[in-house]
Amino acid sequence: MLVVRDLVAGYGAAPVLHAVDLTVPAGTIAAVVGANGAGKTTLLRTLSGMLRPSAGRILLDGEDLGGTPVEQLVRRGMAHVPEGRGVIGELTVDENLRLGGLWRRDRADAGRALDEVYQLFEPLARRRRHHGHQLSGGERQMLALGRALIGRPRLLLLDEPSLGLAPRVVARTMALLRQLRDDTGLTVLLVEQNVRSALGIADQGVVMSLGRVVTTRPAAELRDDADLRHAYLGF
Ligand code: ATP
């Protein structure tokens, strides 16, 4: 379970996140939605250790992660797929995937995880030796996700996975996240502009505005209740 309390973070003197509170139960998907500039990306960057919070607490399964270096966060089960995905164009699919397991001491399990990723993403298996820059947007998204999964994370932080993808590919990505949640108990914090798709697979919807969480609701309620949608999502 991920618990965030009173988190304050930003880029300079002025904070972007003002006392963010959030609870994501283990084995569930939370979709973080809200207008541009609400602080969604900043929240993910702070959780993954890229930004240092100036106040507040981050607990993963009861363990306080405050001040933990990024590498340690990864070892403790956190994986972040940033906006833009971070695929390295000059490396092959196989090399990109292996990067995701370099830090692992259990080499045998890293190898098993690699095989599992190839089973899960069959197009990647076919393009093992292709370079990152030769892939389509959907394939790059698979690669970024696959690389994160090789670390067998407990918590996956995903920033705009649907960006630039065709609707059919978005649907496939969302279905895969649901499958990972159901089959492996993965906990997912998903930031999405594509609110409908995200709320379609999420257990809870977390609405952010101006650096704060303004409401947290069951995702289906936010998706289906027109009054709530108008009030919080503006459509
Ligand atoms: P978007 O969907 O547009 O990315 P968001 O909800 O993810 O929106 P953030 O990207 O977290 O929002 O941005 C929140 C605020 O932080 C904005 O006012 C933005 O201008 C500011 N900000 C974002 N990145 C930086 C940065 N690297 N340096 C300074 N300010 C930043």
From TrEMBL:
Keyword annotations: Amino-acid transport, ATP-binding, Nucleotide-binding, Transport
Q: Which Gene3D superfamilies match?
A: P-loop containing nucleotide triphosphate hydrolases
Q: ABC transporter domain: which residues?
A: 2-235
Which GO terms fall under biological process for this protein? Answer: L-amino acid transport
> What molecular function does GO assign, one term?
ATP hydrolysis activity
Which Pfam families does the UniProt record give? Answer: ABC_tran
Family classification: Belongs to the ABC transporter superfamily.
This chain belongs to which protein, by name?
ABC transporter ATP-binding protein
